[in-house]
Amino acid sequence: MFIAKITNVLRRRLIFFYHTSYGSRLIVVVRIFQSFIKK
After folding, report:
1. What is the SS3 assignment for the chain?
2. Would I find Membrane among this entry's keywords (predicted)?
């Protein structure tokens, strides 16, 4: 279960990295969302 969660996060990060050239603002929003989820 833990590995699956890590792989999911890695996949999402990879996808966002792919879309960085399209819109780096999305990364900022995702980071804020991640910080909110972590809390």
Report:
1. CHHHHHHHHHHHHHHHHHCCCCCHHHHHHHHHHHHHHHC
2. yes
Rounded Cα–Cα distance for residues 39 and 20 (Å): 25
Determine the Cα–Cα distance for residues 39 and 31; give it in Å rounded to an integer.
12
What is the dihedral angle through the alpha carbons of 24, 7, 33, 17, rounded to the nearest 10 degrees? 0
Question: Considering only CA atoms, which of 32, 34, 36 is closest in space to residue 5?
Answer: 34
- pTM, full prediction: 0.37
